[in-house]
Amino acid sequence: MGDAAFVPEHVLIIFYQLMPVELKGVIRDKFPDAEVTIYDVQPGVPVPSEVYQKATILATFVDLPDLKDSKNLKLIHTYSAGVDHLLQNPILLETKIPITTSSGIHGPPIAEWTVMNWLVSSRKYVKGYEAQKSHSWDKNAYEPGLHDQVGKKVGILGYGSIGRQIARVSQALGMTIHAYTATPRPTPESRHDTGYIVPGTGDPDGSIPASWHHGTDREAIRSFLSTGLDHLVVSLPLTPQTTHLLGAEEFAILSDRSHHHTSKPYVTNISRGKVIDQKALVDALNSGVLGGAALDVTDPEPLPKDDPLWDALNVQISPHVSALGVEYFPRSLDILALNLERIAQGEPLINSYTRGKGY
């Protein structure tokens, strides 16, 4: 008997707006041996059952099939870094279909967004922008509190791919990095990044931090906040354990132990809004406990127009866009293409979600 006929994978790409023709070409080039269906989903209109039923591989953000339409699926790839928005879906609860994430692609744009906000604050960019609009040449407006980032201590809560790229860029500015992880990383090997990395970015071998800290309880977090940090970057997954992890007491510890003479600590949140007690953050900003905050996430989203966070002192808010860019979608599908190669070769998937872990 001859070899069994080759049956190509059927890759279903769910897109959330009308996909440009040139992007369709890029996608098809990534999966040359597969049948590819690109489905432009309409707001509020479910993907038809027959579209799901043909697929063996699904790439999506929020749209998942009913259980009866998922029987042919071998792999589901999500465009997001985490799966907290999918945790209650029957596909995750009642099947064993492998799930992979796009963790690793967010580092470059989010690191740029992070440092941009630091510099907007420390270099008083808004004052300059307003002065330019009013045709005003006033050097005196800049002088009080103007400072650079050299020698500042950056604490990164959650030293994954995003935190590692923030560390890389921060180090280039002359800052020192202090990493915090849930589990101990006592050896050089344990500090390696084992997830997907955009080539030429991040901290693959974990050599950038000046110190490593770990723990999952509040006391461990508070010990980390006591190390004299100038910046605290929040890059944690949202889980029951991390919900409202940072509140009034944590901000007070961070502030009291900071030694920099020109400014109070600056908090950057690029994870999920619920990791921070938002009322406590507003109070800390308005009372001067914190020197400022950059927030790409809030609780809730969208942030209501009358929420006091909008008017807190020295806060910079964006509507969950720090990861966006024309590179996002192709990079996400690079991970899927890599995993299809791994499936064919019988190798473990990269960026695989572990059920029960929450991320």
UniProtKB/TrEMBL annotation:
One of its GO terms (molecular function) is oxidoreductase activity. Keywords: NAD, Oxidoreductase. The keyword Iron-sulfur does not apply. Residues 119-188, 229-322 form the D-isomer specific 2-hydroxyacid dehydrogenase NAD-binding domain. It comes from the Eukaryota. The keyword NAD applies. InterPro entries: D-isomer_DH_CS1, D-isomer_DH_NAD-bd, NAD(P)-bd_dom_sf. Coiled coil: none annotated. It holds the Pfam family 2-Hacid_dh_C. PANTHER family: 2-HACID_DH_C DOMAIN-CONTAINING PROTEIN, D-ISOMER SPECIFIC 2-HYDROXYACID DEHYDROGENASE NAD-BINDING DOMAIN-CONTAINING PROTEIN. This is D-isomer specific 2-hydroxyacid dehydrogenase NAD-binding domain-containing protein. It comes from Penicillium nordicum.
